[in-house]
Design a protein that fits this description.
By secondary structure, the protein is of the alpha/beta class. The chain is built from 14 helices and 18 strands. It folds into three domains: 132 residues, 3-Layer(aba) Sandwich (Rossmann fold), CATH 3.40.50; 250 residues, tm_1862 like domain (pyruvate-formate lyase- activating enzyme), CATH 3.80.30; 61 residues, Nucleic acid-binding proteins (OB fold (Dihydrolipoamide Acetyltransferase, E2P), Beta Barrel). The structure holds 5'-deoxyadenosine and iron/sulfur cluster. 5'-deoxyadenosine binds next to β12.
Length: 456
Amino acid sequence: MAPQRKKLFIKTYGCQMNVYDSERMRDVLAPLGYEPIDAPDDADLVILNTCHIREKAAEKVYSELGRLRPHKDAKADSNRPMTIAVAGCVGQAEGAEIMKRAPVVDLVVGPQTYHKLPELIAQTHRARGERLETEFEPVAKFDALAGDRAVEGHSAFLTVQEGCDKFCTFCVVPYTRGAEWSRPVDQIVAEARILASKGVREITLLGQNVNAYHGEAPAGREADGAWGLGRLLRHLALIGGLDRIRYTTSHPRDMDDELIAAHGDLECLMPYLHLPVQSGSDKILKAMNRQHSFEEYARVIEKVRSVRPDIAISGDFIVGFPGETDVDFEATLQGVREINYASAFSFKYSRRPGTPGAAMPLQIDEAVASERLQTLQSLLVEQQTGFNRTQIGKRLPVLFEKAGRIDGQLHGRSPYLQSLHCDAPSHLVGQIADVVITDATRNSLTGRLVEKADAA
Ligand code: 5AD
Ligand code: SF4
């Protein structure tokens, strides 16, 4: 007998790793009859997959719990009460506090234990005196089922590594996601093959420190010891149907020569590298415990550019880290001018409880940090617009992902991860086709599809 149908609403906050985890939670819960819906109002189960990286991100969870309360109350006396779960990094960092501060929450689950969700939900229902699904499958089975993936679209995330041992002094990740851990190569290949067989053309390998990847070698190659990311990429490049591979996020210290060489050798490895530096000042980099100087970072970029000159470089920056002076901030601007970024993310330092940065003297005034952020962002926007405009007149292969906002248009991505809109027939969704770029703005490109005749 099929399990009773239930409605599942998952809201995802934060990084791509959470997007991936949410998809896997959906996969794990599907055999219990949970079907995804787009709004929480009528859900049997609501999961907030949360982010703890900055204070604002964490606070959003409490606001959302407040909004959910009336919906939960409205269903309380029905035969289908709402269960609310908090997953992800806020769950890991503040589990007990959440249960106290927001009694509306039924259960909390950390990022490493989402495969236990069926069991935890059952426990919650049992505690409420509800009847359990008689078809409830053993957890081991769900683990096995989690090997299959429901796939939407033609571009997918694939987690290859989790956790971080770098302990940058501003960052909560080593505490919420734990120590570095890599999935074995065979497991990743199996998942990549499933994705390819379901029409996925592009995969993005995910990890908090993805280029620190050191996974168990495939069966028969055990003598190799652990494989690094460069080697893994070469192996994945052989899978038929996967035309594009990306990876994120990397640490400058782990950009080894094999990985850099892969950027020159592998056609399917897209010319885009997200390599955060955080600051251009060596004094601040030291205080952040980044374990590299700006010069060392710049040298890595130079090496990557020497094998792949057109590569788009992206980065992350933090302004207003404790002790940051005008001179330090000027060094960041100078560093940005030197690298010339195709895109970047920049943030005001957020003081996270429990991290060494939170206890440092010379915390920076909010107004100063805001002003610096604005200055940095206008420079980065200028560079991003400039990079996009260099594509005008070029012919780029575009992976079309979905319908565009305007009728008759499709939305796709260039090799450099730029968003692109152009007039194109809907049968091209999921295909890669050449487009001549006709215009570019800060956030996207427009283009003209190359007709078959001129594609010859
Ligand atoms: N404050 C501001 N930004 C942060 N990041 C991580 N921790 C903090 C913090 N405490 C930023 C870094 C990182 C990105 C994912 O988030 O730039 O690379
Ligand atoms: Fe956080 Fe630093 Fe690890 Fe990145 S490398 S996850 S910023 S501790």
